[in-house]
Amino acid sequence: MFWKRKGKKKDGEATGEAATVTLDEARDEPDTAVQDGEGDADGKKPAEASSAGEAEEKKAAKAGSEEKDAAAEKSAEADADSEDADGAEEKADSAESEKSDEKSEKKDAAEEKPAEDEAAGGEEDTEKDSSADAEDSSGESESDEDGSDGGDDSEKESGEKAEAAKKREIEPEEPGIGEPDSDGVQRVRTAGALKVDDEEYPVVSNTWIVKADDEGVIVIDPAHDAELILEAVGDREIYLVACTNGYNTHIEAAQEVAERDEAPIALHRREVRSWRRVHGAENPPEIEVEGGGSLKAGDLEIDILPLPGTSSGTVGYYIAELGAVFSGDTLRAGELGTVGDGYLDYTRQLHSVGEVLLSLPPDTRILPDQGPETTVEEESGNFNSWV
């Protein structure tokens, strides 16, 4: 502490001044002694006085020097005491800081302990929950095993759908005869041209041959090549020829196919004019169908669905027993059917699709006049894009 050191130095200076004053007083004394000894005859007294004065001066000087040394020692001791005090204060501060840190560490440790306990408790709860989940999962697995038969049926059905989708992707749209499926439905593709307003559009059209019973079949939309269609029918009897509308892509081979077994031809009455353009007026269809009606052929019940749009008398043939609807040119895989390169009445056609075809069960097969088959579920996902 500087203020202590300065105070001691001031005391030392004061002591020095006092020594100087004493020295001056001692210097004054020889004069007095000389004055007193003026009457000595041999001059010895003044000499002695002078010698005594010098001795006093030396003594005073020595005393002053000793006092200065003593003051310096005291000042050094004071400084040491100050440093010791400072060191003691620092040690005290350090000790207090260490104690404070220890308390803080103990407090933090005390706070961490409950947190650890909570974490441990949380882990226990998690383990319990995991154990419970495992038990539930085990129970579900047992339940799944118990219902494995239902699961197998579902997997089989999904596999059949996937196989059908794959078949649609790889099967070429070229003239030919397809194999009958498990429901006895067979597709025959024939090449020709759609004739609309004196224009022709090359197409590959579908004709569907449906097993009605062990003896006979129904032929739907006989298109361009009667010989190829009859080859697919083989020795089976043709019970009925059903046409979805009067465009030539649906009726062109109808007369020849029906004649072989004298089968009746079904067509909406509004499509008779289109029929006459192809086959003349002398051989009209035997059955005039209406939407909402039904037909019976072999073991099959066929519901007639009104689907106006591509023409005013377009219909669909729905066989619930087979889970299949023959949609003609109203709805194809992924698109609304067109007439040539456009639509005759888009609004009515869209209504027929949304209100009639897509109201059937989702797994219903849609078998169109062109392209691969599809399902109600698949086309329901496309409907909003057509609106």
Automatic annotation (TrEMBL):
Residue ranges of domain Metallo-beta-lactamase in the record: 204-370
Pfam families the record matches: Lactamase_B
Tree of life domain: Bacteria
Alphabetized UniProt keyword annotations: Hydrolase
Acidic residues bias (residue ranges): 78-87, 114-155, 171-182
GO molecular function, one term: hydrolase activity
InterPro entries: MBL_Glyoxalase_II, Metallo-B-lactamas, RibonucZ/Hydroxyglut_hydro
Hydrolase recorded as keyword: yes
Region (Disordered): 1-185, 364-387
Residue spans of biased composition, Basic and acidic residues class: 55-77, 88-113, 156-170
SMART domains on file: Lactamase_B (SM00849)
SUPFAM superfamilies linked: Metallo-hydrolase/oxidoreductase
PANTHER family: HYDROXYACYLGLUTATHIONE HYDROLASE GLOC, METALLO-BETA-LACTAMASE DOMAIN-CONTAINING PROTEIN
Protein name: Glyoxylase-like metal-dependent hydrolase (Beta-lactamase superfamily II)
Organism, scientific name: Nocardiopsis composta
